Amino acid sequence: MKQQQQAFIGLTNPKSPDNVGAVMRAAGCYNANGVFYTGVRFDKAMSRGQKLHTDTKNVSRRIPLKAIENFKQAALPNSIPVAIELVEGATSLVEFEHPDNAFYIFGPEDKSLDKEVVAWCKHVIYIPTVGCMNLAATVNVVLYDRMAKLGPQAQGDELILKSRDNNNRLTVNQ
Predict the structure, then answer these.
(1) Residue 169 resides in a domain
(2) Does some domain include residue 1?
(3) 170 domain-assigned
(4) Are 30 and 57 in contact (CB under 8 A)?
(5) pLDDT tens across 17-70, in order?
């Protein structure tokens, strides 16, 4: 019997509740199992009354969003750490084969991942774009690529009916 796929997300010192909220929404859309973050900027922004406005599906109520000291602390024994960074020598996402149990580590919006984190990760991948993408956009692309390559957990009309919002009643005439 095949082991269930799991995907965890690690955010390095995120600064924007808008970005973290959008990451949470992506985590919900692509069935991630949890989101961990390091650093203090996000907590400071939240303590000033900022909210996760972009988590419009309230995913943070069902998928854990947890502060941690370092990513090694959060890694599950069978998870494979994967750094996502525009760094020389990285593997293109186009060529990358996602592990069944991945712990994707994303850099901060305004810096790069620490060398120690990159060295700890089993894989280092980049998205072949011209310029760098927003943190939440990067998470969406990586998780979508994972789903496209490993296969969706659900699909078809049942998923569409469960997933779309109340304002969408469109059907394809056949």
Answers:
(1) no
(2) no
(3) no
(4) no
(5) 888 888 998 999 899 999 999 998 877 877 776 566 665 565 667 888 999 999
The two structure tokens encoding residue 129? 């774009």
CATH number at residue 139: 3.40.1280.10
Residue 106 CB contacts under 8 Å (≥ 6 apart), including other chains: 9, 10, 11, 12, 84, 135, 138, 139
pLDDT in tens, 129-168: 998 899 999 999 999 999 999 876 655 555 555 555 556 6
d(CA 74, CA 130): 32
Our count of domains for the chain comes to 1
Structure-token pair, residue 90: 């990285």
- In the structure encoding, which two tokens stand for residue 63, read together? 């998928």
CB 82 within 8 A of CB 104: yes
Q: Which two tokens stand for residue 51?
A: 């909210």
In terms of residue numbers, what domain contains 155? 6-163
Q: Which long-range contacts (CB under 8 A, 24 or more apart) does 43-51 make?
A: 43/67, 45/15, 45/16, 45/17, 46/17, 50/17, 51/17, 51/21
pTM equals: 0.85
